[in-house]
Amino acid sequence: MPHVTTPDGVDIFYKDWGPRDARPIMFHHGWPLSSDDWDAQILFFLQQGFRVVAHDRRGHGRSAQVSEGHDMDHYAADAFAVAEQLDLRNAVHIGHSTGGGEVARYVARHGQPAGRVAKAVLVSAVPPIMLKTAAYPGGLPIEVFDGFRQALAANRAQFFLDVPTGPFYSFNRAGAAVHQGVITNWWRQGMMGSAKAHYDGIKAFSETDQTEDLKAITVPTLVLHGEDDQIVPIESSARITVTLLKNGTLKTYPGFSHGMLTVNAEVLNRDLLGFVQG
To answer: Active-site residue 258, yes or no?
Structure first.
């Protein structure tokens, strides 16, 4: 399997499909998943003639299950190692959830300084910060994330069934069309990864303040968020994020869930394509 070895010796799995001379789009997945979560987008953009790249975050999917480095700084640096080895230029970086935080830090600290990024998309993304703080009183209390850690440590396999069965795709809403295959695929991706990476990753996605990352981004940035996102509430994320970006645009979707990229792929793919081509 193709891997990039990072400067600190971690093997990062990646997919690199499509014409090498085509416009590259790099996808950054959410917690606790893998690059497989982008199947609907990867296949769509391949059909549109793009080069598509997606990697498994360290400790996730098919990347090395290392003990350390499960934080936003390492996530962004690992993504940069992939972009450098593949020599991605004029790239569009699209991140979902925790991957949105990874994109924000990557663009601010690596992509823009190296001249490798043209546009960014933050989908259902965690910035500026999920945790309730003095600066962001609308965030979620630490007890929510402590509960995640407790559930993961007690029975990760059950926790990774409960999340997609319930709030992730809003399958817990009355009248929701529940897709068992989507739930099973979420569980499969999660259980491929490392319990240590997933446990540490909760702190990374919830407690990392990315205000300065967002302020530093100058490339056109599209912020997409579902209005029924039960995982990353829109009022404390996307609606604040767009005010911090120098060149940001917000599009929201009534009734859409945190997992809208999967269950509403046709709508999201159309809007992503319009931004990429615009």
So the answer is: yes
